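ugh ok so i messed up the first submission bc i forgot one of the chains. this is the corrected input, ALL of the components this time, i swear. 688 residues overall. if the numbers dont match what u have on ur side tell me asap before i send this to the collaborators (the ones from the other lab, u know who)
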Amino acid sequence: MSRDFILHRVRTALGRSAAQPPPPAPEVQLPVREVPLERRIEIFSAALEKLGGRTVVAASAEEARAYAARLVEGKRAVASNAPLLADCGLTSLAGVRSGFSTALELRRALESADVGITGADYALAETGSLVLLSSASEARLVSLLPPVHLAVVLRDRLLTGLDELVSVLPDPAAATSALVIITGPSRTADIEQILVRGVHGPREVHVLLV
Amino acid sequence: MSPSSLVQIRQTLADPGLQAAIYSSTGRLVEKRRQAVVDSDPAEFERWREQAREIKKHTLENLDFYLERLEERLTARGVKVLWAKDGGEVVDFVIRLAREKNARLIVKSKSMTTEEIHLTDRLQEAGLEALETDLGEYIVQLAGQRPSHIVAPALHLTRYQIGDLFHERLGVEREVVPEKQTLIARRTLREKFLAADIGITGANFLVAEAGLVVVVENEGNARLSSSIPRVHIVIAGIEKLIPRTADLAVFLKLLGRSATGQPLTVYTSLLSGPRRPGEIDGPEEVYLILLDNGRTRLLADRAKRQSLYCIRCGACLNHCPVYRKIGGHSYPWVYSGPIGAIITPQFHGVLEEAWLPYASSLCGACAEVCPVKIDIPQILLDLRWESVKAKVRENSSRLERWAFGVWAWVMCHPRIYELASLFSSAITTSEGDGWLKSVPAPFNIGPIRNWLSQRDLPPPPAKTFRQLWRERSGGGPS
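and heres the new structure output, hopefully the right one now
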């Protein structure tokens, strides 16, 4: 079997024996700086704007709902099952469909949707990123198939950056089968290094901080 | 040098459009990386490089342990982990699985490891529809070519050529605006994604302790490939391992900045298996194939083991004065540029493509930008030395040995040396621009002509150093 063959070759190459424990792995220094929330919001907005995304700080659920209403007006939208979206009244907006529990139904709805609305488990200030964990409330494809992605994130879930994320979540596999970090709209520069947004994923990303 | 590489190099150098395409695209990538390093503070960036190198060194020195740990963790999450000695085993497995699952359409996202084993071609030959979905890879596949750059596969094509290609192959209007071309690809490929039975991706990192397959991309095609089809197959070289999730933070920061100047690529997926009960979408089956294909041979070489640290960012290509002239297609294997020049001979043997380690001015730019600090120039020198040793063993360098014997003898005999230098200045003339491009007949033959066909030399001066010395000191050593 190739497994044993390869492992044997690796051990021979390294002069190691089976089940020999390794020395401790080198220390990784990931200093997480204390940054006040207001500053984190500024950093996040600036980073996302640079990537062509948009951040809106909503003082209340009503403000969030009003922004979402303008975005989906006259369009077809699909919202994930994240409780936060219903709490903000987004799932009851005209044109928004929600509550899908099977992959097939969800995908059919998404194929013709203009906007996908999701929550996000975390956001990362330094890079303007969203962090989504696949679950019963959050399917993988809502943030991916429609040309516009609207994400609603609680302000206290805004972390400083990647370093803080890996310290908060050192074992992502315990929580989900798929964690995705989304940093701005889908993009490519494969043709003459010219930037184009919206290749296979959304060309627009809007983030509502509530 | 293989004749096909020589032909390709000559064609590339003679094509002004191609020269401009390669030079300007790599130039933009160089500038983006430089800006990203400045923005993140060069001292900080240097610390990440140090840490990344130490982590890779440690992981590879204990690779068997981490491979088994990864297998254990992923198996517990329902991933089927397989091991493949070579490309043939991977191809056989994928074809068998496709037949078993009655699958016809396979969507693939960009992966150098699958390029290495020509997976797409092999699957097509087996009657399966296997489609590249990264925009650059899709273009290259439509054109019937191979990628010319690790990160930007279609870097050698202009948008006008791509407009013609789409027109001919997809039957659409001829479009030369990249936005419209991208939209055409999005529409065509979206249908394929929705109908696909199997999705294949590579992996940028495999996190052993946490049991994660990490895939990094900008377009979203890897997310689609790993989310829509019922079956997801990951194909990764055994060198992709790192120990912990915390290590990932260091590598992600380096990879995006080094490759395209991005602090983080658009999509970073941390996958750990099939859809779990309660989750709405995602694949029902996930396979991870761990590929050797020559890597264990390289692992045994202490000095050159560091070649396996490579995270395929492409920075060494963009900064290489040789790559920027001859382009990716001139290299004999899928890995081009400085990293290709060091790993190709190590995977295929030093006497195969023995010219590769010489296709470098040893300027050191590659080592300066490498995010994991691979000492590429030193490895190039080691490989040159090995290929000479191998040639001596095979006694295939008799002429070279004879020439160096004569050289050594001349250098050891001052009077002969002086005569030789007088003789050489008598037979050579410059061509007016101050450079010597050939020597006159009857000396312009065989190896001398070959040697000079690639090199310029200044012509010998009118008076030798010894003559000048004698004139100044009125006698001196005679």
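quick check: The radius of gyration of chain B is 26 Å. that seems consistent at least. Chain B is about 50% helix and 10% strand.
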